[in-house]
User: Which sequence fits this backbone?
């Protein structure tokens, strides 16, 4: 059994990673972290560093519990949603974990297109997590 | 700990209920089924009967495992999304489970407004499940 989580260097991405790891511990599932970050406009170097530190801590916890894990760096020019869905299908994921931004009181009424694509097109369940 | 699932008499609603019950068994959590069905256009009597039968089976499994559960029938004229989010906040839900329709190859590119509202506005995580 495997749980797939998308690597995103934001506080939502870190919350998703943390929750995915907890779910792996609960059900003795393998954790597959898919990195489809391409830099650019949304890149936040500080968040990326915090994410890497968080990832190391998560890996330590999984190592301690004897839970298998892997990080896949995909640079195939695909839409991140496609990469995540393809990996989830390949490993027969129990579910995918994604981070979602919290809506501000006057925030937009629509989910981002990546989140919508993953929710609509993944054949497995999707757990959407907010930042703490 | 509690898991909240929205009652919907569709095959997606049944899939969400089944998954929510499995997650309750896994983590010894209470199951709270929120019924905010209002009949009307989308009402399918056959699906409703299948859903009720499914609910009875789920309750039997939870009884056998000694897991607490309750069904809340809410007729407050609220948007179903608001009811679900309010109950989840009240019981400090670990997460909410919702059913999502599978997109057909030529299907629409947007999630329904109820699903989007729950995903955007719930403070807890949301597990979105497709029908089998």
Assistant:
């Amino acid at each position: 059994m495997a749980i797939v989580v998308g690597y995103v260097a934001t506080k939502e991405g870190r919350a998703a990673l943390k929750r995915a790891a907890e779910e792996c511990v609960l059900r003795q599932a393998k954790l597959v972290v898919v990195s489809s970050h391409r830099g650019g406009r949304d890149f936040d170097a500080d968040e990326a560093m915090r994410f890497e530190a968080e990832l190391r801590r998560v890996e330590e916890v999984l190592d301690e519990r004897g839970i298998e894990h892997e990080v896949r760096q995909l640079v195939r020019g695909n839409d991140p949603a496609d990469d995540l869905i393809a990996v989830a299908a390949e490993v027969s994921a129990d579910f995918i974990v994604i981070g979602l931004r919290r809506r501000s009181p006057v925030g937009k009424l629509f989910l981002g297109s990546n989140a919508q694509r993953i929710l609509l097109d993944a054949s497995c369940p999707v757990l959407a997590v907010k930042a703490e």
